[in-house]
Structures are given as structure tokens and as C-alpha cells.
Design brief:
4 helices; about 15% strand; 3 strands; single chain; three-stranded mixed beta sheet; about 50% helix
Length: about 90
């Protein structure tokens, strides 16, 4: 689940992390460019907001995501990024 107590966290990488993610995280091949990735993340945010949900973009690091994936024994796949963002929120 990618929710936190008061809404949804939508993980977002910086450009440099995105380029690295394309090499090491399954599922990142679905985005041809960083701009496509940002559009999808923004679209998810807007979709949740239009549905009346509280959502926010949550900047995360690829290193943190990879460490978290190993620590929970789960593969590092793009579909788990929002769950990581929810756990990483302060």
C-alpha cells in the first residue's frame, strides 16, 4: 500500500537517479525519458487529487530505495516506489 496516515506519497527521483534507475530497477524501461516519468508521476498526483484524495510528491533517493528493497526482501521494482516513499516520509 502506498498510503501514509494522511494521504498518498508519490515517489519522485531526480534526473540523475532516474538515469541510474533505468539500469537497475525493473519497470523503468516503461518511461522513454525523464520528462515522460515526470508526466506519469504528475498524472498520478492529479488523478488522486481529482478523486478527493490527499496526495503529495515525495522526493526519494535511488540508494535509499535499493537499501530498503534489500532490507524488506523485495525486488527493486518500479511499482514499489510509492510504498517506499510512504515509509520514508518523516
Amino acid at each position: 500500500m502506498d498510503t501514509i496516515t494522511d494521504g498518498y506519497s508519490i515517489a519522485i527521483f531526480e534526473r540523475a537517479d532516474f538515469e541510474h534507475a533505468k539500469e537497475v530497477i525493473e519497470g523503468f524501461e516503461q518511461w522513454a525519458s525523464y520528462e515522460d516519468y515526470l508526466c506519469e508521476r504528475d498524472g498520478r498526483l492529479l488523478g488522486l487529487a481529482f478523486a478527493g484524495q490527499n496526495a503529495r510528491l515525495a522526493p526519494v533517493s535511488i540508494d535509499g530505495f535499493l537499501v530498503w528493497s534489500r532490507s524488506v526482501g523485495a525486488p527493486a521494482i518500479a511499482s514499489r516506489l510509492d510504498a517506499f516513499a510512504a515509509q520514508a516520509e518523516p
